[in-house]
Amino acid sequence: MGTVKLTKNDLKIQKDQLKQFERFLPTLQLKKQQLQTVIMKAESELEELEKKYAAMVDGLDDWVAVFAENTALPDGKRIEDLIIPDKVVCERENIAGVSVPVFKELTFREIVYDVADYPLWADEAIFRMREIAGCDALLKTMRNEVELLNAELRTTSQRVNLFEKIKIPEAKENIRKIEIYLGDQQTFAVIRGKIAKKKRQGETS
After folding, report:
1. Which of 27, 103, 201, 204 could form a cystine bridge with 141, CB 3.0-4.6 A?
2. Cβ–Cβ under 8 Å, residues 95 and 133
3. What is the pLDDT of residue 70?
4. The domain at 8-194 falls in which architecture?
5. What values do phi and psi take at 175, rounded to 5?
6. Do 10 and 1 contact (CB within 8 A), yes or no?
């Protein structure tokens, strides 16, 4: 806390600052509430997606025997060679004042292959593996979104605490001290004035 001068000018400064703090605080509190609500919803959706992803991966157990055939395919012509992610497509969206990535799609490189070179189950396997890769990319994007929202919530909470517990009480205390001092000075001035008046009256009598 900086040194406060016990003057009318500083009293005005402290009162102006207090008005600003009390005007900004409700906005910060509202933002904090919005972030908490959004984060709860995002974390719930993330939890559901993680369950879905785990179920999709577990579903590959049925393919263990089938995928054993994949190892018999020549290098460069195995199923995984047909599934090469290209890029994650995201858009930016403003959520509770935070710019976050929103997943749109995971694109894959276009690879032309002769179906005659692969077993009948290859198309289904490619579809399933692309689906899992897309879900994984969505998971990573959503985790990033939640991290960004939580970081903003921490910052906003710190600002709310700063205003509630430090800035506003500090300004109120400074105003109280200045008003007491100025009040005392005014009282002393009145007393001095009365003493001077009596002294003058005594000298003229």
Report:
1. 103
2. no
3. 64
4. Orthogonal Bundle (1.10)
5. -60, -45
6. no
